[in-house]
Design brief:
By secondary structure, the protein is mostly helical. It contains twelve helices and no strands. The model is unreliable at about 45-50 (pLDDT under 50). This is ABC-type transport system involved in multi-copper enzyme maturation permease subunit.
Length: about 270
């Protein structure tokens, strides 16, 4: 297990796509959570929400701001990471090469899921660091308070972000295993993230009460409810207080366990070819 983990960690670090996805996540997070709200609050037409827009970019709100992208946009990037890391092994025949050396399928896959969890934590910490730096710069420029949330709130936010990010990478990994490749898995994953779950929440749920109830059991709305409970801006796509933070965390955690179990069962029982 340790050997597989180390090998997979080296592979992940050497893939340019890993760092490209992280760079895209940082740029998107900075742009939509800080740059655009700040410019709107300082250069836009004065109105009742101008002060609120500036306040949302200050260090006191860094936890909610950095979590707001995980239900949809940042989550989609993590799904792509999971697909590339696991599904890409089929195209190059890496599965056959590794498994003929002796490790069991479960051991190799456990190493991959472990590395994906570490990568997800790295994404969360990097985005939180970016948000902290951006909020401090804005506070300094506008002569505002630089007070951060309590250490407990910060750790709780990082933990919630890690849970959601790991769940999305596991979702991508399972798609790669089920579809034995990258292209179709990435396509279907992005369609679900950017289209289907938003259509369910925005169109079907308001019209059909049973859909409104059922969506609380989906991973996207669960992630959105979890970050909403921790202060993510309500206008952010995918963020909605459908349930409390505790039930939402249980939904996300259940999907994480389910994705790992499904991927393990399918990989063990199905031919690699």
């Amino acid at each position: 297990m340790v050997g597989s983990f180390r090998a997979e960690l080296i592979k992940l670090n050497k893939r340019p796509a890993t760092w490209l996805l992280l760079g895209i996540a940082l740029v998107l997070g900075a742009l939509f959570a800080y740059v655009i709200p700040y410019l709107g609050a300082t250069t836009g037409t004065a109105g009742p929400t101008a002060d609120r827009g500036l306040a949302a970019t200050l260090p006191a709100n860094v936890v909610g701001n950095t979590l707001g992208g995980y239900p949809v946009f940042l989550g989609a990037l993590l799904v792509v990471l999971g697909v590339l890391f696991v599904g890409g092994e089929y195209g190059w025949g890496a599965w056959k090469t590794v498994l003929t050396q002796g490790p069991s399928r479960s051991t190799v896959l456990a190493g991959k899921f472990g590395v994906l969890a570490v990568a997800a934590l790295g994404f969360v910490l990097a985005i939180f660091a970016m948000g902290s730096l951006a909020s401090v710069l804005i506070a300094a420029a506008e002569n505002q308070s630089m007070a951060f949330p309590s250490a407990f709130d910060i750790l709780r936010g990082i933990g919630a972000g890690w849970l959601i990010a790991t769940m999305w990478t596991a979702f991508g990994a399972v798609l790669g295993i089920l579809l034995r490749g990258v292209a179709l898995a990435v396509g279907l994953g992005l369609v679900w993230m950017l289209a289907v779950q938003n259509l369910i929440s925005a169109l079907a749920a308001p019209l059909l009460p049973w859909v409104d109830s059922a969506q609380r059991g989906l991973p996207g709305p669960g992630a959105g409810a979890l970050v909403a409970a921790l202060g993510a801006p309500s206008g952010t796509p995918g963020v909605d207080s459908l349930m409390g933070g505790g039930p939402a965390a249980l939904v996300v955690g259940a999907y994480l366990v389910g994705f790992v179990a499904l991927g393990t069962v399918v990989l063990r029982r199905r031919d690699i070819l």
